[in-house]
Amino acid sequence: MAYKIERRKTDLTPYVYICEESGVMKLEGESYHENVFEFFREIKEWLAEYLKTDFDSFTFDCELVYFNSSTVKILLGMLLDMDNSKNCDKITVNWITTKNNRIIIECGEDFEEDLDNLTFNLITN
Amino acid sequence: MFDMMEYHKTLRECKITLVYSGPLWAEGIGGVASTVKKRLEYDDLPLETSQEVFSVFVEQMNNMLMYSAEKSQFVADEIHPEAPKGTFIMGVQGSKYFIQTGNVMEDKHVDFIRDRIDYLNTLDKKQLRAYYKQQRLENDIPDSKGAGLGFIEIARRVSSKLEYTFTPYEEGYTFFTLFATIEGDDHGI
Hints:
The complex is a heterodimer.
Chain A: E1 4-7, E2 15-19, E3 24-31, H1 36-50, E4 58-67, H2 69-83, E5 91-97, H3 102-114, E6 119-124
Parallel strand pairs in A: 3-4, 4-5, 5-6
Antiparallel strand pairs in A: 1-2, 2-3
Helix pairs in contact in A: 1-2
Chain B: H1 4-13, E1 16-23, H2 26-42, H3 47-67, E2 71-72, E3 83-93, E4 96-106, H4 110-120, H5 125-135, H6 148-157, E5 163-168, E6 173-183
Helix pairs in contact in B: 2-3, 3-6, 5-6
């Protein structure tokens, strides 16, 4: 069965939506839980397996407003997994933020420099 | 009885607007974080400044959580039968925010943390960004408890060099204080 989850956002953890069938993953809100690794464990594991499969397209919309340095490591890990996967050319990452969110913009720019294969769009509204 | 008036006056004189001292665990920090956020909203700062202050707060709390050697018997939740303890203050002086944390740590961490902060204090903002970018790809330094990136994040957001003190505590332990300032706009308070 295709994987699908939706987790409500809390003060410390983001809104998460994943629908394998439509090839969509979304993160919104904030992420600064002390144990952010535990929070993302299942998602990371699913992603690693999913990237081995054949799919038509996969879109990751990242619209986080704030996240801590531990989350940066997790996001980078997931982005590199995507970038190094066999279907990397079918992957689009939309890094969505607002014009005045310099911290998130800089982080997006730095991620973009480390990614060679997937499509990375830095979108500032 | 504790002299509340003296304490009250001290907080006023030192421009301290928020104090937290006690057990540190994720959900508890969340409560303090909400208060910090409310305060920053109230001050009507540009997003950039409020995010800088908030980010320094989050990373400093996280550092205390990882390094504090003093444990509270307070049962945070099932996963954390005892929570590390620490003290946090935030203050506003004119357009400048300051965040100071204090916690007891084992002597063995002192050199690592001191070296780390001293090194970060030699870098400018551009170098800090490049260093951060490099370090987020690295696996954590064995004894760093994953705090490597947190200190760099703090150094990136502050407007002057990081200040710290290490004071001998009980045998084998040191009291660590980290002081960070973030320059706001001209609103003041």
